[in-house]
Amino acid sequence: MTTENPEVPNLEDEEPIVPVPTATMPHYGDQSAVARGAMWSILNQSAAQILALVVFLITARFVSKEDFGIMAVCMLVVEGFKQVALESVGISISARKDPTDKEYNACFMIILVGSIVCASIAYLSVDLIADMLGNPAIAPALHWVCLLILTIGLTRTHEAWFEKHLQFKKMTIRSLLSIGIGGAVGIYMAIHGFGIASLIAQQLVTALVALVFLWLATTWRPSLNIEMKDVKDILKYSKFVSMNAGIAYLNGQSDVFFSTYYLGAANTGLYNSGKRIVTAAHMMLVNGISRVALPAMAASSDENRANNYLKWNRLTTLFLAPVYVGIALLAEDTISILLGDKWIEAAPILSVLILASYFTQIDKYNSNLLLVLYKPHWQSVFTTTGAILNIVILYLFTRHGVVWLAFGYLVKTSVMYPLSVYISTRLLNISFWSVWKELAPSLISSGIMAAALLAGREYFESFNPFISIAIQAPLGALIYFGSMWVIARKSIEEVIAGAKLVLPNKKAA
Questions:
Q1: I need a labelling partner for 39 at 20 to 30 A (CA). Which of 170, 283, 313, 437 fits?
Q2: Burial letters for 172-206: b for 16+ Cβ neighbours within 10 Å, e otherwise?
């Protein structure tokens, strides 16, 4: 199982194979271009995650919890190398206002060499990792999964190029093709009893298909036209991001380690099933917007940056809060429909994790701000504090059971988010309460929605899970947006205005 989102490029409107020396960068001050980029980015994340979730839901009915737990550990290792050693370099390019081809070349070579080193280290460490976690079945699986690190080295710079040029439409097609083909292979093997091998094959095929289509779709090609100055600048900046990413990795993924170490592979598979649904939810709702927000914030003037920061928070929580609260309330029905009764123990885990995820996802704008303002060392101090708190809390909570593990994660995120907001507001020279003022309408409206649905819970308990969700989901949405219309009508009108920027202009046509 993976928390990643493999993507596939779109081959439509492909340019000539000859690399273009200097591509025309989109202007991030163009609200229409940003809106279209956000739309395709959200569609990219949403469609890909829905497809990946469908693949997971099907394979979960044929593959054991233990195998999913082992795969979760393998992906934990891959994600660790990716976040600490590779992703930080890609982020350093995305955070630049207008990277040159030489800077892209430098970025590619750094990530490629880094991926080879990381894959080699991971491959040679599989027995050590398996012994440490007390599960020898991890070693043979991890031997194959290490290959994913190499595919990251060959694709991450291209992804950054697409993001900077707002070519999210191509990335959407890329996602659907790779996940669809890889998922088909995984499902076929799972149905025929291949167990964990089906999960491994799914990931490898998905990554390889994504790699091939990505290289075919982009007009940029890496070359050896590199200046050492660019290499040094990227490494200098990315070392701070890498440190932050490593600590953030401990913050976000140490729960899987503690679960495996204390509770075993089966409980880890159970925990990760809830976490997988949470991941799909935030990838669909948040990551698409966040990937547009970082370059857009980087292009913002100092005068507009504070307003844009508040705007991104306001628009994100407008949709995030009701969906996450709704999932928490309907977790048992959701698990019953998606995974079946053998996974029903994941329902309380899902309820707690989805609430914790609200804070972690809305907090991305605070992290983006520190990157844009070249304050990665500030983030290092903050995330180090969070990592220490995270390890202490999870150590105390995990031994009491898998649901307590989820509660520990919620406690940690609830404590750290206000501190992150405080840092951002100090940098922007705005009031600490200005952020909460933007979040409050959606949180209050979500609370009203939750109270209404809880009041009628006894009535819906006798319903079939499908019917229960089919009634409560639209009812909750109606209550939520009705409350928002009364409390913060301007937010709704702002979304409508943004939608008009995305839709074709008939008059212009």
A1: 437
A2: bbbbbbbbbbbbebbbebbeeebbbbbbbbbbbbb
User: Residue 492 in 3-state DSSP?
Assistant: helix
| DSSP code of residue 4 | -
Amino acid present at 211: L
**What are the pLDDT digits (tens) for 425-461?**
988 889 999 999 999 999 999 999 999 999 988 888 8
Instruction: Give every CB contact of residue 278 below 8 A, 6+ residues apart in sequence.
Output: 350, 353, 354, 357
Q: Give the separation between CA 86 and CA 4, rounded to whole angstroms.
A: 14
How far apart, in Å, do the first and last CA atoms of the chain sit?
46
Q: How many residues in total does the chain contain?
A: 509
Is this structure's pTM higher than 0.85?
no
Contacts of 379 (CB under 8 A, 6+ apart): 240, 244, 367, 370, 371
* 238-259 per-position pLDDT tens digit: 777 777 777 778 777 888 889 9
DSSP for 402-448? HHHHHHHHHHHHHHHHHHHHHHHHHHHT--HHHHHHHHHHHHHHHHH
Residue in the structure block whose two tokens are 């040159």: 100
Q: Which helix (H) or strand (E) is 487 found in, with range?
A: helix 465-487
CA separation for the pair 10, 31 (Å, rounded)? 24
CA distance 165 to 34: 10
Phi, psi of 127 (to 5 degrees): -65, -40
User: Where do the H-state alpha helices sit in 165-285?
Assistant: 168-191, 196-217, 228-282
What lies within 8 Å, CB to CB, of 228 at 6+ separation is none
The b-or-e profile of 364-385 (16+ CB within 10 A means b, else e) is bbbbbbbbbbeebebbbebbbe
* SS3 state at 388: helix
